[in-house]
Structures are given as structure tokens and as C-alpha cells.
Amino acid sequence: MSNEQQITGQANGHNGIINYEVDVSNDHIDDFKVLKHSETPGIFNQVVDTLKQNIITNQSFDVDTISGATVMTKALLTSAKSAVNAAAVKLHSVPTNTEHQDVELTADVAVIGGGEAGLVAASRALSLGHKVILVEKNGYLGGATILNGSNVTATGSKVAARIFPEQQDSPEQLLNDVTKESRNTNLPELTKLMVNNIGSAIDFISDYADLEYQKAQTQTPEHSVERQIELTSASSFEFIKKVSAAFKQNGGQILLDARVENILTDNDRVTGLVAEAKNKTITIHAQAVVLAAGGYGANQKMRGTESEGIDYYGPMTSTGDAYSFNDKLSLKSHDLGWYKVYPHGVEVEPGIAKLTTYASKKATDMGAIYVNNRGQRIVNESDVYAKFRDAILDQPGKVAFMVMDERTWKEVYALLVLHDFTAAEIKGYFDNPDKKPVFVKGGLREVAQAAGINSDQLVKTVQRYQEQAETGEDPDFGRDAQYLHQFYGETFYVVEQRDRFATTLGGYSIDPSTMQLKNTDDQDVTGYYAAGEIVGGANGHDSMPSMMNTWGISSGYLAGLYASQAVEAAKTASAN
Q1: Which among 488, 456, 455, 493 has a CA at the least distance from the CA of 470?
Q2: Disulfide: which of 115, 289, 316, 559 matches 121 by Cβ 3.0-4.6 Å?
Q3: DSSP state letter for 304
Q4: Mean pLDDT, the chain, as a whole number?
Q5: Using one digit for the tens of pLDDT, what is the confidence trace for 217-257?
Q6: Which segments constitute the FMN-binding domain (predicted)?
Q7: What are phi and psi of 185, to 5 degrees?
């Protein structure tokens, strides 16, 4: 007679409560289901699939946590084990081999890093007929990309011609925009490499992984023409999921939970890598290695003074490991103190932010204004993001406040929930006005007092803005009349706005003609290529929206190509 049980429980995840169910029959775990959660979907979906497989295979909750999601997976395992024990279930665990193994593999191309750039590089090399192994230190793919939107430029592509049939754009125009917005801090050769190849790269990866791009819902003013595109989900998880699936279906190999510890060399040529995994040391011998290991924003020891007082919103796994395992190679680097600082953040934990870009942009389109704690407007709310960033940095405490009416808040709320916030989370902010972040609603003086804003001045500021919206002229900041909308009703909403960063803009130096890393003697390191955030300079000190994805995809495409050419040259040389 079958003894079936559905055991439910809750665990404290990174973003809130996770509700789960363990299905058991005759003291055997049949299934492990997550019923509800508020974690980052792109990470959580991958992690839970792996965790479920390990639990069922081992018939135990005493399994390894998943790297990159240790706290959350430990909480799930601990809670589920307790719940099952409380139900008097007697599990019969399956013994696993914990003996350390030394594993040796060979590949034409080895890729370090499973984010956007690494997956594109690996896919490009694989498509050219080479054996490729990708190594990722986390227990899931995506790197920093997994937290981004999918928005990217597609200048010069067939995809762009389909989406913008009437639009006139060119690599030269994109180059000029990057140069202008970075205030001439970009490295021209890298920028040219990016703008001249993003079209081919987008067409390649779209065909390879069956990606369906559309016009991005937000066309930011830093771009002189409409050229930003995004996937239908607007999420980079779709990109990571589809590209990795295509890579594996075509014969590529992915090793998760494998942290690179050493780069193999022979007579100044890179010949492979050594990675540590669970109970394994993996040595991969390769003709070429592509480094796409991401940035170092979460590494406090590597952070410079420029980032002080600015919230970090990137993955805590961006720890700059490459700067340790590459130490013996004496690689050339530059501008490690550069960070991509954005506006549109709220501080959800001390020093940690969540982005509000889509919601904040919608608010200002509908007439919201930005004020400081003195109640004064601080910026043209329809200007480029860099102006917002700088204006907020100039305020006391490096914080501003977005003031809006109720009709605007309804639209803002919908976009917050769509992008990384939960309804319960937002409700908690309003219910606890004495705690960060600032989310308050009520009459104008009421919200001013709750947010710590000078109420008399805020009343004057709103009155003046109402008059400007009525006349369609803003002599104070020059805001375009199409965004001068009056406030309606007597209920106002105030949401804090802080600057935040995730992306590091400096990094290693490469040879633009080969994508090979350079050493401190300014010589190419034979057999060692790089792509993505680990390479600094293409976007300068201040990348425009969509341009880090543009760099990741274009540089990955080229690194995979040049690594493949090196493999072909080596095979030809050995054959002769």
C-alpha cells in the first residue's frame, strides 16, 4: 500500500519567503517543487533544477549547496530536511562517491565564464567546427548578464533592418555617439571594433539560438537615432537560456561549479587551465583559451574611491577572480577605478540597490519631477541618464526624490513589479516609512515630512512646476513640453532615487586586431583571448544604455572567431 505525502514548508530566500513542496511515497522523495518565490528568475530557475536533481538522486537533503546561490540553497535544504523529518519520513540516502578525482580533458577552445560574452564566444568557435568546453564558477549560467535587461544595439544587422526599416543608422554614427557620451574617454580602436561587428554578431547569435528581437520599449536619448532592440521577454535570461541550449545541442560542453585556479602555459603560450570543482580537479588542455570572466564590482578590496557612497546592484559573484589566477602572466590592465554609474536605484539593503530604470523613465515621461531634500528641483527630468547621475551625486547624501501623482504611480507600480520587485516588498516599504528605501504616499506636506524633504519648499516647487506644465515652458531646466504634464489629484507618491553601479569599465588590455590579451611589456599573450566586461575601454568611462550588452556580444563573437583561427593555424602547422 502506497504511503504518499505532500510535505510543504517555507525557507527564507535572498528576496523573501520561498514556499516549497516535497512529494514523498514510501519514504522515497519523488519530487521537490517550489510553489512560490520572489528570487531573481534567471538564477533561481537554474539553481532549483539542479538542486531538485541532486536531492532526488541522493535521496537526501544533505547535498552540496549551489555556488553563487549558497545562502538560498542552504536555506531550502535545511528547511526541507526539517519538514521531512517532522513528518516522520525515514529516507534511505544513496551513497555518493566523495573521493577526489583528477580529470583531464582536451578541447580546441576553452572558454572561462558563462555570461553573455563567454556563451557567444563559445558558440562562435563551436559553429566553426571546433571542440569547445566552457567553464563557469557558479552553479548556473549568466554571470552579471543574468541581472540585465536584454536591450542591445544592432547597427548594421539584418535584424535592425527588419525592426527599423526607415531608420538611417551606421557604425560611424554609433561610434560618434559612444565617443560623445563617454566624453572622449573611450579607446577608439576598441569602439570601432565594437560598432563594426555588432551587426554581424547579432545576426549570428539570432540565427544560432533562434532569438526573436523587437524594438526596445525604451529608446534612450543618449542614442541619436532609435536603434535599441530587446527580446520579447525583455530579459537576458531568455538570451542565456536559448544560447546555452543551442550550444549544448550542437555538441558544446559546459562545466558548472568549476572555479578556475590556474592558467597553463608553455614557453609563454597559454595551453589550458586548471579548475577546481566538487571533489574534482579538472585540467583542460586547449589550443586557445578565451577569458570572459566578468568584472570585480563585488570585490571591496578592488574597489576604488570613485565607487564610495554609491550602491552596488550587481551580482555578489563579480569578485574579479581573473586578477588572481592570471597573476603570473603579468597582464596589462588600465582604468580599474572606472565604474558604470547609473541613476534610477533604490537602496534595499545597506550599500545594495535595486534598479528602477523602466519605472523611473515612465514616471518622468508622465511628468514626475526630481527634488532634493530641500524640496528643490535638481534636473531636467527628460535629459540623458548621465545628467541624472551627476545631479544626484551633487545632492546631500547622494540621494534625490521622485515626486509623482497617483495616475503616474499606477504605471510605475506595474513596471516595478514586472522588473524585480514584488507586491509584498513594495507594500513593506510603504508600511515602514522610517526605514529605507523611501516609498511614501499622501498629501504633499505629508509625503514631504515622511521623506525628510522641506515641505514649504516642496509646495512652492510643485506650484511652480504646475504653472510651467500649464504653459508648456520650463525656463528653469528646459524640459521638453511633451513631458511637462500637470499633477492630478491631492495624493502624491515619493520614491527615493540613488545612483548605483554593477559594471566595471576598466579591465585588461587587448590587441584589437586579434582579441589577444597583452602583458605589461605590451606583447600579445599567445593563445589567450578575452571578451566582455573583463576588457575595458570600448565604451570609455561612461557607457550608454545598451552598450555593455553590445560590447559583450560583439567582443564574444570576435574572440570566438580569432581563437578558432588560431586553432586552425596550429592544426595546419602541425600537419606540415
Answers
A1: 488
A2: 559
A3: -
A4: 94
A5: 889 889 999 999 999 998 899 999 999 999 999 999 999 99
A6: 13-87
A7: -95, -10
Q: Which three cell numbers stand for residue 34?
A: 517550489
Distance CA 425, CA 430 (A): 9
| 508 grid coordinates | 585588461
Cα–Cα distance measured from residue 172 to residue 524, given in angstroms and rounded to the nearest whole number:
28
For residue range 36-85, what is the model confidence (pLDDT) as tens digits?
988 888 888 899 999 999 999 999 999 999 998 998 999 999 999 999 99
Half-sphere exposure of 363 (CA within 13 A, CB side): 29
b/e string for 486-519 if b means 16 or more Cβ within 10 A? Answer: ebeeebbbbbbbbbbbbbbbbbbbbbbebbbbbe
Q: What is the pTM of this model?
A: 0.84
For residue 8, give the DSSP letter.
Answer: E
What does the DSSP assignment read for 310-367? -EE-S-TT---THHHHTGGG-B-EE-TT-EEEEEEEEEEETTEEEE-HHHHHHHHHTT
Q: Report the distance separating Cα 315 and Cα 286, nearest Å.
A: 29
Alpha carbon distance 548, 531 (integer Å): 11
DSSP letter, residue 143: G
How many residues are listed for the chain in this entry? Answer: 576
- C-alpha distances in Å from residue 508, one per residue of 291, 407, 431: 10, 47, 46
> What are the CA-CA distances from residue 264 to residues 101, 224, 272, 448 (Å)?
19, 45, 5, 60
- Beta-strand pair 101-112/132-135: parallel
